[in-house]
Structure formats: C-alpha cells, structure tokens
Amino acid sequence: MLREAEIGQKIKKHGVLTYQDALIFVNKLPYGRNQSTTITCVIEEKRGTCSTKHAFLAALAEENELPVKLMFGYYLMNNQNTPAIGNTLEGYGLPFILEGHCYLKIQGQIIDVTFPDSIKTELGFDIIDEQEISPFELYQKPFNHKEKLKAWLKDNPGYPEQDLGKLWKIRESCIKAAADHYLK
Asked: If you ran DSSP here, which 8-state letter would residue 141 be given?
C-alpha cells in the first residue's frame, strides 16, 4: 500500500493503491510532452514522456522508500529502434541521432513505461552511457543532454551534422514525430 504522502495522495485519487498499480496506471497514460515539469505533471495533464513518467514513478518510490532508481541513458536513435522518426532523420540525411532516455531500474531490472500498454523490461536499443539521476533534478536533463551531444560530436567528427543548434532542432523534430505517432 502506498503511503499517504503528497505524491501518493495524488495518485490514490485515481484508485491506485500499490506501486505495481502505479506502474500500470502511468504506463496507460498517453505519450506526449508535458507543459509543466513538476513531479506530478503526468497526473495533472494525463500524459507524459519517458522523463516525466519515470520521474514521477521514481519520486513515488522514494516517498515510499522503495529501491527504485531513475536512470538516464544515451543511445543512437534510428529508424529501427524508433520507426516513427525514420522520415524525419531521412529528411535531414542522418542515419541516427544521439538521444537520451529515462527509465527505471528496480533491483537491477529495467522497467520502461514510456509508451501505453507496453511495460518493457528491455529497452530495444543499446545504451552507450547511463547515469542515475534524481527525479527532482529533471529540469537539468536538457542541459546535460546538450553537453553530452556536444562531447559526442567532438568524438565523432564524421557525423553528417556538426552544428549543435541544428542537431538539437532535428532532435526536437524527431521527438515531435514520435509524439504525433503515439497520439494517433
């Protein structure tokens, strides 16, 4: 049973009583960008991304003293592991783009509730770097991601697009394409 603390109270209003119920409830929420980056925005806006969904669940776990870690991993997003972005990448002449993804680790097991009706225990792509982050530091994710992308570009001078600003805009187009696909 979830504690009656701040986050637990908000989700209990939806009939969610256990952490397993919370995983299922959040997973069923549509994929989509949130207007807010507060911890409870997924409940308030009834949607979320990998970042906001998993940050909410990590904060709920922390509130309930459960051994859940919020992870931020980098991978090469392409048409094979994210088909919804294939046309976007192709339009810019890129084979892939460095992307960051948030997910949970519970006793070393990956849990990914990003897309509705699919609680995954495998990511479907290779993580090339990962770190544990605090759910309450989610606002730092774009900065950290840009810094990682900047370093990655320096290490990969043959990548077709070397302008960080342009690459970030392409990435945003990819994320929008993925959101549009899952909101259909």
From this structure: H
